[in-house]
Design a protein that fits this description.
Blueprint lengths: L1 H24 L1 H36 L4 H18 L3 H11 L1 H36 L13 H7 L1
Helix pairs in contact: 1-2, 2-3, 3-4
Protein name: Phage exclusion suppressor FxsA
Keywords: Membrane, Transmembrane, Transmembrane helix
């Protein structure tokens, strides 16, 4: 749900910014900029996507995991899609996905957030399982029923 709210607010701010800047620079200039970044995004997705896929295949043939190529390809496709969307804020974020140093910074941030999230989930599961084992701990024998394997084979 929070991601939906974020996307809605981002789109709203992007359109407000587009219309406010468009009123200052004029309709024709705004249309040229929006269409130009849209075509640039489409070209980028086609060109860089194929090149990144070729690098990923090359690394897989060598026997390496192409994690950086996969992230680079995803960032380029995401950046190209943002460039195709009308709006100056989405164009700025799309251009940030194209700059290699910005991509590396995003990769480090996402990796850190991903590792932190995995560690937090692991810590929560460990705490829950530790509470479950301690709360049901009883002194004395454990009662239960069992069937030996010999009896199970005789019943068939």
């Amino acid at each position: 749900m929070p991601i939906l709210i974020f996307i809605s607010l981002f789109t709203l701010v992007d359109f407000v910014l587009l219309f406010s800047i468009g009123s200052h620079i004029g309709l024709l200039t705004t249309l040229v900029l929006v269409l130009g970044t849209g075509f640039a995004g489409l070209h980028l997705i086609r060109k860089e996507g194929v090149a990144t896929l070729a690098r990923a295949r090359q690394r897989m043939q060598v026997g390496e995991l192409p994690s950086s190529e996969l992230f680079t390809g995803a960032a380029l496709i995401f950046g190209g899609a943002l460039l195709m969307a009308p709006g100056f804020l989405s164009d700025a974020l799309g251009l940030a996905c194209l700059v290699p140093s910005a991509r590396q910074l995003m990769f480090k941030a996402l990796t850190w957030l991903g590792l932190k999230k995995v560690a937090d989930q692991h810590h929560e599961r460990f705490d829950e399982s530790f509470k479950d084992t301690n709360s049901s701990h009883q002194d004395g024998p454990i009662e239960g029923d069992f069937i030996s394997r010999d009896e199970a084979s005789r019943r068939r």
